[in-house]
Amino acid sequence: MKNLKFTLILLGSFLMINYANAQSIDEGKKFMYYEKFISAKNVFQQLLTADPNNDEAAYWLGQSLIAPDEDKDIDGAKAVYVKALQTKPGSALLNAGLGHVELLEGKTADARNHFESAISLSNGKDINVLDAVGFANGDFDSKMGDAAYAVEKLKQATETKRFKDAKIMTDLGDAYRKLGDGGSAQRTYEEALKMDPSYARAMFRIGRIYQSQGRGQEAIYLKYYNDAIALDPNYTRVYFILYQYFYETDVVKSAAYLDKYLAAKGSDELNSCFLTAQMKFAQGLFAEAYTSSENCIAASPAPYPNLYGLKAYAAVKLGDTLGSKKAFEMYFQKQKPAKIGPRDYATYASILWGFPGNDVLAAEMINKAVTLDTLATNKAAYLKLLAQRYVEQKLNIEAAKTYGRVISVKPNYTNVDLFNAGYNFYAAGLFDSSNRYFKLYAEKYPDDIMGYYMQANANSAIDSTSAMGLAIPHYQKTIEIGEKDPTAPNAKNRLMVAYKYFLGYYFNVKKEKDSALIYVDKALALDPTDESMISNKEFIMKYDPNAPAKQAAKKPQGSAAKNK
From residue 111, how far is each of 93, 145, 325, 374, 470 by CA, in Å? Predict the structure, then answer.
């Protein structure tokens, strides 16, 4: 009887320990759900310290290290999984965890091997292992992973008897979304809500589907976000997304959502100092943003790198170029290269141009911005900044080549883009290159005089004696368009250049006095006060073609080559 009682006491103690452990794991997972990763890490670390064989605690500890959007500790998670696998090499969860880390490292083949090992070790029946594999591959916010593979494994998990796990169902929705199947994603999220009507993450994810569709969907996704808050006011992610959403359009609302986000996250939000300073910037309080950034940096032994960037941008707004330059230098030194954006490089370049001797570095920054940015309009804008700098320095060849790059990255380039490239080649004396762009100009804008006019000027420079008549068809087109409306801006000047070209061509090359006089008269009709044309007409009228020797030393003024 005593032995039976002792056995029951031991069994009861064992059950109590397991119950406490389960609660602790669940507590940590709850922290993960609310994105309180520091608290989650502490829970799982304590569990693992107490029991190094607890592979579930080790798995979730690794997940808490790689879950944050900012500052993922991939190396730390890998160390956790490698060490735990030395203790329990046959753990399916740990194999799945290590595969997740390898995905983040870009080692897709190694990752797949560990995923398959995890599934094999669990006989393909453990829904938590299938979820771990599916989540790693189907994470919509990660560029790595095989979405189709994620869908396959997560569907396998949902097909078990009496399946009612809203978390796994939502992970399946994420995998569908990553696969590009928004309809299946929404239906899956809705199934998750049937399983757990309070699961705010699923409601929030439906809103993200509509937000990803761009303009015109605002009312729909904002409704889903508010519904998510109604389901669970402590779900932090929705507050952060709303804070970001209103940041550029409604600072008051953005600030309110930031306050709710920080209140919900509590001490788990390490970057609260930065977010508060950033809100000062959004409110136009640039001096306060600058000071707040400095204070945040001074208060932390390892300041958040974005604080230096915020300080730099605040200094730009305050007109403090030296302060901005120093802050950017610290930002580029402290921040991980993968997290430096194209706008950062371009803004830094514009600051560097204010300090002599930095042109090469500034050009390097612009080129990095162009490489990183995915929007053609932004790429073109960065290149224009660089081209304008070259123009200011009278480096026409570099300017022309850079404007040429603008055209190459901009699908709907304009006449201004073509002019900038063509004109700078012209100014540099590279007339063939200039012609190439103005030929494109004339083809794309056939009713615009500029493309023909600049081709005419370039060919006139190439054929300086007009012996080959290279400029003739282009000046003819210039006259055709210009005479339709001589009052158009600059039409008069371009017509006068064309008329003077034909005056010189017919008198000097063709020796046709009457044809030359036609263009003299056209020019004088356009501008009766033009002294060179008055003088040319008097000369040509007196010219005797039968006595060339007497007049060989005199030629009419105004060939096109001399009158651009």
Answer: 13, 9, 42, 28, 65
Rounded CA-CA distance 496/537 in Å is 15
Using alpha carbons, select from 465, 426, 460, 421 the residue that is nearest to residue 440.
421
State the DSSP string of 366-411.
HHHHHHH---HHHHHHHHHHHHHHHHHTT-HHHHHHHHHHHHHH-T
Q: At 379, phi and psi to the nearest 5? A: -55, -45
Residue 443 burial class via C-beta count within 10 angstroms: exposed 0-12, middle 13-18, buried 19 and up: exposed
DSSP secondary structure string for all residues of 97-161: HHHHHHHHTT-HHHHHHHHHHHHHHTTT--HHHHHHHHHHHH-TT-S-S-HHHHHHHHHHHHTST
In the numeric block, which tokens belong to residue 102? Answer: 């390898």
What tokens appear for 538 in the block?
């008097």
Q: 3-class DSSP state for residue 318?
A: coil
Dihedral (CA of 355, 358, 362, 365) sign: negative
Burial letters 360-385, b for 16+ CB under 10 A, else e: eebbebbbbbbebbeeeebbbbbbbb
Q: What is the DSSP letter of 507?
A: I
Distance CA 540, CA 507 (A): 8
Question: Which residue type does 84 have?
Answer: A
pLDDT tens by residue, 161-194? 889 999 999 999 999 999 999 999 999 999 999 9
pTM: 0.78
Record the tokens describing residue 457, joined without a space.
Answer: 């000027």
Dist CA 487 CA 485 (whole Å): 5
Number of Cβ within 10 Å of residue 159's Cβ equals: 10
The Cα 251–Cα 230 span in angstroms is 23
Task: Give the lowest-confidence range in 9-18, 30-39, 45-54, 490-499.
Answer: 9-18
Cα three-residue angle 497-460-442, rounded to 5 degrees: 80
Residue 122 has pLDDT above 70, yes or no: yes
Tokens at 143, concatenated: 């560029």
34 is written with which tokens?
């609310």
* Cα–Cα distance measured from residue 163 to residue 142, given in angstroms and rounded to the nearest whole number: 27
